[in-house]
Specification:
The complex is a heterodimer of chains A (about 425) and B (about 220). Chain A has about 425 residues and is of the alpha+beta class. Helices cover about 55% and strands about 15% of the residues of chain A. In chain A, a hairpin with a 2-residue loop joins β5 and β6. Chains A and B meet through α10 of A and α2 and α3 of B.
């Protein structure tokens, strides 16, 4: 008897029950996935913020001013972050590596359309090499030559500020992370929004992602963009780093490294001041996701096993009849296992899709709960937890089939048509 | 002398303390219809279950197609049930959620017949037995008489050398019984050996040999031959 016909005919008349059992598991899996997706997005957001700061120091030439009076040139030695100086900073004990930064030293105006409204804003740009953002993008995405569209990483803190009050105050919609990707705008260097400067350069730009890099409230662009604008606009020492990020070696106290750098005559300030709080939040979220998700996933699968146990007992008579006509235990057992595994995979796939939908619907609520309870502003963008999903697709059918196996074996090993 | 399809020698079955069958002998040759009668509880069904390989705790020998059932592996026994004999039990044992035609098609499908052919043959058989209007009715929704005819159709749907029928006409009217017994006779004429367990005199009428099961043994009562 063909396997497909055997499966189809064996389940004939029980499909409603099978669908009900599958829907039950589907609901449980949807809840599990929604919690896992929310938790994972919170974890990612927190990790991202941690990595954006972490144990890093921003090193600048020393500066001194009293009110509006700039005293740097007269009271402090003139220091510039040329290649030799950067190499020296890299040699300081406890510094793991040094990444140059090039802030815009000319007026910058940004023009574009946001959520249906024309926006014009003064701003700042920060040029960084690929190594600084390599966790976010690929080298190709971060390359730029004159004439190319400038790839821009938007600061996450700006997004939080926009969603946190600006949008509501101006009657504009809240933005999700995905919605920011692809926004195009024009960067005008050398000219502010009042248009007082003669020299100006226009560049087309496109947002390629969000970042928490270095606590910077600026449009993060490839360092070559600022180097080019420096040259075009005749800035002093064009292309020379305005600051560097010194990443501290793991296990070394950042405060000690900060002191050593300052002793060398540089200004140094720690980044990621909220790292400690975020790390506590991260542990809470991870624990909640692991324990809650694990219990829910286990419960969902146990539920499916129980449903199938009842269903199989109802079909004992059919199995006995089939065996009495010569069907082997192997073929019947395989057909039942296939049926159970298929229903489980369906429950996992459809449940995961629903779970992701629920997670997205609940993202705003979760954002405000995390903000209230943990005091941390996070933008949650739930995505399908592929690791969890892959594990479920492989492990769940196996787990359910193994769980249902004693019942299947009891059904197949029962007496035949004797009364 | 043709080779026996079924050969039982010195068969004894005990259920607990009670001896149900005691040193029973029976031979069924190709084309032969053997009827077994007996009072309720005389062991008729136990004998059929021993022939079908449903019970294994017996002494003596039960051979179908010269194969000793107690020595067959699970898979060979399964193959014998598919290819060696057709069986109709007293309780019909239909797949209750499956339609009449699909129930009848199962033995053919297990024998490797393509599904379309099997269903077509099932439809023809059921129609010839007067159940043609209920081909797609779930068997649990059929009357007892209809279910009995479906069970009979299933037992003969796939060509096998031996047919075992337990009370095949118990719920049928005279016309339906006649129809069914004609089909049994036709199968016997084509060389199929038949074992009939029955109370019905009209059923006994088609038998070549008639036995009464009494005190665990078969006592010959004659027959056509």
């Amino acid at each position: 008897m063909r396997f497909s016909v055997l499966i189809s005919w064996l389940s004939s008349g029980y499909r409603t029950e099978i669908i009900k059992a599958t829907i039950g598991a589907m609901v449980a899996i949807a809840i599990t996935v929604s919690i896992a997706a929310l938790g994972e997005s919170a974890r990612t957001a927190i990790t991202d913020q941690l990595l954006g700061g972490g144990d890093s120091l921003r090193v600048r030439p020393p500066s001194l001013s009293v009110g509006p009076i700039e005293l740097t040139g007269s009271l402090l030695p003139d220091r510039s972050l040329n290649e030799s100086a950067i190499a020296d900073i890299g040699e300081i004990h406890g510094v793991h590596d040094v990444l140059p930064e090039l802030w815009s030293r000319f007026p910058v105006s940004l023009r574009g359309e946001l959520a249906g409204s024309n926006m014009v804003s003064d701003g700042a740009m920060l040029g960084v090499p690929f190594r600084s953002i390599e966790g976010d993008l690929t080298p190709d995405e971060w390359s730029w030559e004159p004439g190319d569209v400038v790839p821009v990483l938007a600061p996450r803190s700006l997004m939080v500020a926009y969603n946190g009050g600006f949008a509501a105050a101006n009657g504009m919609p809240r933005l999700r992370e995905q919605a920011v990707h692809g926004i195009s705008f024009t960067i005008i260097g050398g000219r502010n929004s009042q248009g007082r400067l003669d020299e100006r350069r226009r560049l087309q730009a496109q947002v390629v992602g969000l970042t928490s890099y270095g606590d910077a409230l600026a449009a993060i662009v490839p360092i070559e963009v600022i180097q080019w604008l420096d040259s075009e606009l005749g800035v002093d020492n064009p292309g020379e780093a305005t600051s560097v990020i010194a990443r501290v070696e793991p296990g070394i106290n950042p405060e000690e490294v900060q002191q050593l750098i300052q002793q060398e005559g540089w200004g140094a300030e720690p980044l990621g001041g909220v790292a400690k709080e975020l790390s506590v939040a991260l542990k809470s979220v991870e624990f909640g996701v692991q324990v809650g998700g694990g219990i829910l996933a286990f419960s969902a699968l146990m539920l499916l096993i129980q449903f199938y146990g009842v269903l199989l007992r109802e079909r004992n008579e059919d199995l006995r009849i089939m065996r009495s006509m010569g069907a082997s235990k192997w073929s019947l057992g395989s057909a039942l296992s296939f049926e159970v595994a298929t229903a489980t995979i369906m429950a996992v796939l459809v449940g995961s899709a629903f779970g992701l939908g629920i997670a997205n619907l609940g993202a705003d609520l979760a954002t405000s709960v995390i903000s209230d309870r943990l005091g941390v502003d996070l933008i949650l963008s739930p995505t399908l937890p592929f690791g969890f999903l892959s594990l479920m697709i492989v492990a769940a059918p196996l787990f359910v089939v193994l769980g249902a196996m004693p019942t299947i074996r009891r059904s197949l090993n029962g007496s035949l048509l004797t009364r | 002398m043709p080779e026996a399809l079924l050969k039982i020698e010195n068969l004894s079955v005990e259920l607990g303390e009670i001896s149900v069958l005691s040193g029973l002998d029976l031979t069924v040759n190709p084309g032969e219809v053997v009827a077994i009668v007996g009072a309720s509880g005389s062991g008729k069904s136990t004998l059929l279950h021993a022939i079908a390989g449903f019970i294994s705790n017996y002494s003596g020998s039960v051979k179908i197609d010269d194969q000793e059932l107690s020595s067959l592996s699970e898979s060979k026994l399964g193959k014998l049930r598919t290819d060696g004999f057709g069986l109709m039990t007293q309780d019909f044992h239909l797949l209750k959620k499956l339609s009449a035609r699909k129930n009848v098609a199962i033995p053919q499908l297990m024998g490797g017949v393509p599904i379309e052919t099997a269903l077509k043959h099932a439809d023809a058989l059921l129609s010839s037995l007067g159940v043609g209007d209920h081909l797609d009715t779930q068997s649990e929704n059929l009357s007892r008489g209809q279910r009995q005819r479906v069970a009979f159709a299933r037992s003969i749907s796939y060509s096998r050398p031996l047919l075992i029928l337990d009370e095949p006409t118990s719920s049928l009217d005279r016309d339906s019984s006649t129809l069914l017994l004609d089909l049994v006779s036709k199968h016997a004429e084509q060389g199929v050996g038949v074992v009939l367990v029955t109370h019905d005199d009209s059923t006994i009428g088609i038998a070549d040999k008639v036995y009464t099961l009494e005190a665990g043994q078969l006592i010959s009562q004659g027959g056509k031959s």
